[in-house]
Amino acid sequence: MAKAKQIGANKKRNWFLRTWDNFVFKLEEFGKRFVDGSIGTKLSHFVFGAGNFYHKQYIKGALFLLLQVGIILFMVLCPSVNGEYYGYKALVNLALGGSKGGEFDKETGEQLPPSDDKLRLLFGLVTIAVIVIFFIIWLANIKSSYKADLDVKQGKKPTTFIEDLKELLDTRFHLLMLTPTLVAALVFTLLPTIFMICMAFTTYNDFDMTAENTTLFYWNGVNNFVYMFTGQSQLGKEISARFFPVLGWTFLWAIFATFTCYFGGIILAILINKKGLMGKKIFRTAFVLTIAIPQFISLLAVRNLFSSYGPVNTLLQNMGLISEPIGFFGLNDNDNEILAKVMVIVINMWLGIPYTMLMTSGILMNIPTDLYEAGQIDGASKTKMFWKITLPYVIFVTTPYLIGSFIGNINSFNTIFLLTGGGPTYSGYKAGGTDLLVTWLYKLTIENGEYNTGAVIGIMTFIITATITLITYTRSKAYNEEDTFQ
Amino acid sequence: MSTTAPKKKYRSQKAAKRASLAASYVVLTILSLIWIIPILWIVLTAFRNDLNESGEIIGTVTSNFFPNRPGFQNFADLFTFKMNGVEFVFLRWMGNTLLVSVVCCILSTFLILSVAYCISKLRFKMRKGFMKFSMILGLFPGFMSMIAIYYLLKSIGLSGNPDNPALSLVGLMIAYSAGAGMGFQVAKGFFDVIPNSLVESAKLDGCTNFKIFWKIILPLSKPIIIYTALMAFTGPWMDFIFAKVIIGSTNTAYWTVSVGLYSMLYSDKGNPDYFTKFAAGCVMVGIPITALFMFLQRYYVEGVTAGAVKG
Q1: Which of B18, B46, B74 represents a domain boundary (last residue)?
Q2: ipTM (interface pTM)
């Protein structure tokens, strides 16, 4: 009750104050649990599950204890994979950075190989995650014991293990349902993301041999971001020369790709759904084929259709429009960059318009008929009703989609990678004329092992997409609350 | 005069309507031709067995749209062919992909639906936090985490394991389905439309949340279940970057079809001469996937619309 009141009062204040208050509140609760709790609860602060044993919840207590012992053993014994350690040694390694090897092991006397730095960083992060989990379990164990204390105080029996399990199917159903996703996301999404963010602040780079120690990972502060502007070192040279051109093209691409497909799709949907038109199904099937066929097939088909000896170049030559085959997709160094850019946008329309068409068709059928009836009564013409009812309705309903597809296009990998491969190339740089930030990221990290540079690009991409989302999200929310069509 | 005027207007209106309808037919026919031509071309190429002067089949991209000598040789080659020393095991690639996609389909559908239900119909402390967390995480480019996922899988022996290369497929399944739960938005949009009163009345009757999900919500959600499953199933057939990184370029027996087909043309083992065989492979992959998609199109449209409208 008190908490609800407090949160209600907090709502008006700013986020930092609110978080601080919340923190203080949590701390007070923590203190209260220690002071008011039974012996078991007090012991729980040191030995996991002690409180549960005290309340005869043996299975739960044993589980908590097992976790505590397991994690402490993990931290002390430091299991190793491929010569890299977990546990406290991983923390030391994480702080110190990579080692060249060559020193002698104190215990075995063998010469040490150079460190495997990707694993070193990864294991350091895993160890930190384990420590965080340790604290979460610690709190959960205290809370569980305190809850049992309260139950006893109120004259109830502490819940049995079976009852706890049953609760998972009802009042705590969300725990059961979300845990698999949360665990999977923490391990395979959050941890890898943090890993790459860390990379941006290290020297780790398989490629840049000119600077000293770059193949080993050392903490490098914000130097990599400074190099972006000053152009120092190999990575600085690449980023300072190519970042803004690539960024500009990424935006241009996202804007064109989004709006051509969006309005193209709406127009196509209106054409197909025209009253009295026969063979709607046949037309629709023809367009939907490009969604149904795996993209790498359709894109590689198009790429070859337009290749030097392919049908399109031959046709144009036979018609006398061109004398030599032209490189539509900038696959050779001398190809026209602007043509390649136009082509990827056009081919992207070929892929994207059917998608919007399908979506808009569904929406067109759902427009409330009373809107049209009201229009008819007011004597509005068909064209007027289209401009004043149909189009605004469709746009209103699909605004969230529009934002989503803009972000999607900033991160659109397949179209560029499969059609142009980022070409035409700029000699000396990885980023070509049609490279987007994501394809550049791919080339830097996966093709060339320039992990720190790639990570810098990744962070910049995140900052850009996050800013756009934040701005449009808040705007469109305000927009949605206008209730125009509800 | 005054009686004929409306009639004339009516007639001209009818003519205008007809003209605009005719124009629509013309535009749509031209557009659908443009849309179909590249696909038609790849299918025709699959059946192209044109011979060069020395009587061998030409495998490269050629200038003719229609094959001069149609035949099934390219399809036959898919099963017996060695590509620059690498045994070409197309059927096996199909099998690998099918296995991965079936497992992914089950895992991802389960994860997505469970998360979407919780977020849509249950109210709990971390709900808003979870939504924000998934949104922020989704803004990082997926490639950024790919390298780390690879090393993570490698350190537990599920990728690049020399003793047991088949485990790479397990790694791939995990990599595909692990993040699936974060893509709950479309399904959530669908669940949001199911009236809350249904849930509340069931609660009054003493239903647990699990029962409500299992007995009430799921039976009502056939379209979104099919949409989610379809997306999860087709994913492994379309992706090739993740598969290439996690399975590795030397581990050819465990490639998925997309990696195999891409490598036929654009890798150190590839060759432009394999283009007709590539096309035949594309047809083999494309037909089942396209058929499945067309068959379930109704559900796809429903999912797309739900996702777009609800965001």
Answers
A1: B74
A2: 0.88
Clarify whether residues B31 and B141 are in a common domain: no
Flag whether residue A223 sits within 8 Å of chain B, measured between CB atoms: no
Q: Is A454 on the interface with B (CB under 8 A)?
A: yes
If one counts the domains in chain B, the total is 2
B35 and B177 inside one domain: no
B118·A119 Cβ contact <8 A: no
| B211 and B234 housed in the same domain | yes
Q: Which residue has the higher pLDDT, A424 or B104?
A: B104
Q: What is the pLDDT of residue A250?
A: 94
Q: Closest residue of B to A459, CA-based?
A: B140
CB contact under 8 A, A185 and B182: yes
Domain co-membership, B51 together with B157: no
Residues B208, B64 share a domain: no
- Among B74, B109, B129, the domain-final residue is B74
B220 CB burial (10 A radius; 0-12, 13-18, 19+) = middle
User: Domain range holding B30?
Assistant: 4-74
Residue of B118, B258, B275 with shortest CB distance to A294: B258
Nearest Cα residue to A465 out of A209, A171, A251: A251
Tell me, yes or no, whether B136 and B219 share the same domain: yes
Helices A451-480 and A223-230: crossing angle, nearest 10°? 90
Residue A458 at interface with chain B, using a CB cutoff of 8 Å? yes
| Helix runs in B47-89, H state only | 73-80
| Structure tokens, B197 | 């009163």
Give the model confidence (pLDDT) of B170-201 as tens digits.
Answer: 999 999 998 888 888 888 888 888 888 888 89
Q: B12-44: per-residue pLDDT in tens?
A: 778 888 888 888 899 999 999 999 999 999 999
Partner-chain contact B24 A277, CB within 8 Å? yes
Interface test with B, best of A174, A305, A312 (most B CBs within 10 A): A174
pLDDT of amino acid A200: 87
Q: Considering chain A, tell me which residue range(s) the CATH 1.10.3720.10 domain(s) occupy.
A: 231-480
SS3 B57: strand
Q: Min CA distance, B3 vs chain A (Å)?
A: 21
Mean pLDDT by 10 residues, chain A (486 residues): 49 75 89 86 88 88 92 89 83 79 67 74 90 92 89 85 84 86 89 89 67 66 81 76 91 94 91 85 89 89 89 88 84 84 94 90 81 84 83 82 86 90 83 90 85 87 86 62 44
- Tokens read off for A49: 């599950």
Examine the domain organization and report whether B135 and B185 are in the same domain: yes
Q: Which of residues 163-222 of B touch A (CB under 8 A)?
A: 174-175, 177-182, 208-211, 213
Looking only at Cα atoms, what is the longest distance across chain B?
95
DSSP A187-248: IIIIHHHHHHHHHTTB---SS--SSTTTTS--B-TTHHHHHHHH--HHHHHHHHHHHHHHHH
Query: Which conformational region is residue B140 in: left (phi greater than 0), alpha (psi within -120 to 50 degrees), or beta?
Result: beta
Q: Which CATH superfamily is domain A231-480 in?
A: MetI-like (1.10.3720.10)
Contact A206, A215 (CB under 8 A): yes
Q: Residue B209: its chain A contacts at CB < 8 A?
A: 169-171, 173-174
A positions 325-354 inside 8 Å of B (CB): 350, 354
With cut-offs at 50, 70 and 90, classify the pLDDT of residue B8: low
**Is residue B161 within 8 angstroms of chain A, CB to CB?**
no
Q: Which of A81, A305, A469 sits opposite B139 (nearest CB)?
A: A469
The confidence score (pLDDT) of residue A453 equals 84
Tell me, yes or no, if A299 comes closer than 8 A to chain B by beta carbon: no
Q: Are residues B231 and B116 in the same domain?
A: yes
CB contact under 8 A, B293 and A119: no
